[in-house]
Amino acid sequence: MYRHTGIAIAIVVCCTLMADLGIADPTESANPLPPTAAGFTGPTFDALNVTVIGQVPLDQFPTLPTGGADIWGYVSPTGREYAIMGHRNGTAFIEVTDPANPVVIGDIPTAGNPGTTRDMKTFLNYAYSIGDGAAGLEVIDLAQIDAGIVTLANVSNDGGIFGAHNLALNTDSGFAYPVSSSVTSGLAAYDLTDPVNPTLAGTWTDSFLHDVLVVSYTEGPFAGREIAFGFGGPNGLIIIDVTDKTNMFTIASRTYPNLSYCHQGWLSEDRRYLFIADELDEVNGLVTTTTMDIFDVGDIENPQFVGIFSNGEGATDHNLIVAGRFIFSANYASGLRVYDYSLISNIRETGYFDTRPESSGPGFPGAWGAYPLLPSGVVIVSDRQRGLFVFDTSAATAGPPAVPTVSQWGMIIMACSLTALGTVLFKTSARRGGRAVR
What we know:
- Helix content is 10%, strand content 38%.
- By secondary structure, it is mostly beta strands.
- Helix 1 packs antiparallel against helix 2.
- The termini are close together.
């Protein structure tokens, strides 16, 4: 038994050491000429390896919103691509199939009061939209979106749902999860078996949640379970089993250094790591630069804090999404940032586009959300003041995966050798009369 324990300890020590060896990439300070796009006007935007292709200002949205909110994407059955952008007045739909010529094809006014927040997700040929000031969970029919038609199919109030701060949706299970809502400050699960009429299936009320990411495990030790990674504001990370909607329960909870407001996060492609954006650590002065917190969640019952990554900027990080080996983060006043996490011990910023050149410090103006999951590879970003941006990030994602440097490999090998030696000495001592661990 102690043989395997020693190996496990060695692996943990080596992985922990690797996570502590973050090295700044000297290319991050590059300051090339600002990109341009046909019809795009504005101030000089600082950028690296990211080019703006198209943009739609807020005053081109039919409802004339005064502020942008979150963003999502949709691909129609014919392969045409759309941005779904929330804003103070509702939900806008913009075709980006030709990314240089984005076209607003619909703008559904909110069924409630205008509000700062608006979150959207899609399932089948429907979009679900909700915000803090909403009148219910809005169900928007996208069946005719290629013809330029989107229609409000329903505003559901089942279970007492009116407003919610955020919305997650697991397309594998067919459940939507509004959080911090009129139903509960925690998590509510809505069954989308009838997609036009979401029905409340259960609630989890152990703690406040600001946002949540829900996934289904189909292999490994957690196969068959549906797991929610909850971002609990001042309460930190909370992992919840939501498989049985009548008995959703907390699996584990964790805090981390300089926790201020655990805001949002996303899993690595292999679901080994969870990257977290804390919205208030920069604002409250707990950290001096944009800081992303990282957990190893390979064992969801025992998540481990790995460390942090900072790009050296001073802006507040807000929402991030992972695509492949890259993290696309909307960092308010410093805009879109692209990070290569292929070597967790040396995450590198490979590109950026600052959508808010007027300021660069902590605060809430600028980029709200980024969506990098469209098949074409274009990345869409919502900005609170400047509306929709459509980006080409191919230069930021073109390089090979990172590998450990010679010095890193030397330190890792040394640590592993010392740990293995300690394990051998421990085993030898145990065999000679010491107390063996079984």
